[in-house]
Amino acid sequence: MTAPIKTLAVASIGYLVWSLLIVIGYQFADVLFQPDMGWKVLRESFIYASILSVSSFLLLLTRPVEEQGNIKPKRNFRGLLKPLQECCIAMLMVGLGMLSYLILPHDLHAAQFSHALLLILIVLIGIDLSTVRLARLTRHQIWVPSAMLLAIFMAAYIAQWLLPHSFTVLLTVASGFGWFSLSGSLVTSLLGKEMGSFALLTDLIREFYGIVLLFLCGRSLPRSVIGVCGATAMDSTLPFIKQNCRSSDVQLAIFSGFILTLLAPFLIVLFASLQ
């Protein structure tokens, strides 16, 4: 591929990322404004997504020894302005998407458009990473998906004291690892529509947490943020990981996301069968 074409492809990633955020906002509004969703489900989903995200983040907060020599000094306040600005822009794009849901027709097939946009972004990311030399995975990187398995047990144990759901139900919901398109439909078929809505909204909010954290601390704490992204690290949040983390972290994101994507449907069915 010629250099000008590659440069153009890489330069367009940022604009497509903003477009994807607008579509995500539209999809979130489509779920949030459903008559049967209710504030009860929204409140429970927000609480559980917060517990899951904090548990995932904290379990991976310690840096691997081999990375500590590459750590740059902490940014001052001025150095934080850029990620804060980017985070605000990202939230603005999501807000525009939600606003567009109130203005535009509700039969725009946003899921198909989002899927197509995501495929284009993944191709462009592949072009950008074509010259990156892949490193061998270390045991510290393998710990990322392993820690996410531990995180769902921690979060479910804590949440059972705060929410009116059993430990196994909470494990079932958490096992989507942010993959809301799977968890919503699969949990609905196994545990009913209310639990399906709970799972879908929990994973959707968790994905938003991941996107916000990527803009705020993707370069300084990449493993923790990739952990919060869960299974989406290999698809829907991958463009944001590419934009806000180092190239070496993209390989970790794809590996962790792939493992969690394989585990998600199996664990959802397993824990649901324990009811």
TrEMBL record:
Keywords: Membrane, Transmembrane, Transmembrane helix
Protein name: Lysine exporter LysO family protein
Keyword Metal-binding: no
Single Gene Ontology MF annotation: L-lysine efflux transmembrane transporter activity
Record-linked Pfam families: Lys_export (PF03956)
Organism encoding this protein: Acinetobacter brisouii CIP 110357
Gene Ontology CC terms: plasma membrane
Transmembrane stretches, start-end: 7-26, 46-62, 83-104, 110-130, 142-163, 169-191, 253-274
